[in-house]
Amino acid sequence: MVNISPLLSVRHLLALSLVLNVSLMLSVILERAKLEERLNLHPMKPKQINISPLNGDREVADNGEAILNLDHGDPTMYEKYWHRMGDRTTVVISGWQFTSYFSDPKNLCWFLEPELAEEIIRLHKMVGNAITNGYHIVVGTGSSQLFQAVLYALSSDTTEPVSVVSAAPYYSSYPMITDCLKSGLYKWEGDAWSFDKDGPYIELITSPNNPDGFIRQSVVNRSGGILVHDFAYYWPQYTPITAPADHNLMLFTISKTTGHAGMRIGWALVKDEIVAKKMVKYIELNTIGVSKDSQLRAAKILRVISDGSGLAHRFDGETFFGFSHRIMELRWDLLREAVNKSRIFSLPNFTPEFCNYWGRVFQPLPAFAWLKCKDGIEDCETLLRGHKILTRSGRYFGVSPSFVRISMLTRDQTFNLFVQRLSRIHSWNEER
User: What family does the Swiss-Prot or TrEMBL record give for this protein (predicted)?
Assistant: First the structure.
């Protein structure tokens, strides 16, 4: 029998082990690369990104039969971006976690997850669209619940119903939400432009405005009023960020910030501690807090945006705001081209402004198009419905039905069909 040196055997074993480990590592790397390629997770250079709405989805010839629902502001446009992010935004929650009602019992808003509060402050600071220092953060199940909490907080100590007003065209849900419970605490009083009633009032200021996209200020010039600012669309994909907002009560929602409408998360920045406590009390009575699962998912989404949108990467087309801003620019260009071809519609003209976030001048790119029918057409919603385009009439916003609101945040394929179909409408009487 041949004797093999023990030292030689160990060396051989070590060499063999090294070869096997290197082979295994290369195999793992190769498989990871293939997975990333399939899921589109690899960071791509801006010039490689094709986000034109004309090519975003497989193009389908428009036979005029598809119903295009652009009535709701369902932000499905953002699905493409978050799909590209793959598992970067994945949150894993074990069954034993978050069984308690309480998130932070020492905080004024005791059901606010600290992780979400931290990411909200971080994002506002990075974008520069709101001051957070000196404010209480109140989280809600979407901004709709926060709006109801605001009405309760600002009217609960009055002896008569507080008037609630907003300048037309105003957000179409304001009247319905205000009067749905027929509360004796507050009452919808309509257009702020014509409001002249004595007594306390709440003025709702949506800026940029839903539906027309213009920057808004208070219009009621009388004492006894409380202003509530809804900044759902004050983000750099929609409008120039000219200065950080610094008002007593400001509302935000993740649905229009990131596109996660189904998450049902909104937040309020509230200066007055008493008002904040009353809002928290309303949410406690209404839903005993806000879903922790949704809050943690929202925190992860905001963190991914902030991590990828620092100063060094801000202009990269792969960042969230860079990606979504470019899509909005392309969509507005396509819509204006379609309107010009049709010649019976018009769109608002916006004044370009310098944006502190982008460091350049650009024209607002609202989440909704405020379309007007010309040539004496009085009912624009009915005209478009005849072409199977569903929109929301101006009468729901307190103005003429010759206007309609159209969502700009739908999926690519729906938007493509919409602009194609719109460009072919030339009169009320043509065959539909």
Answer: Belongs to the alliinase family.
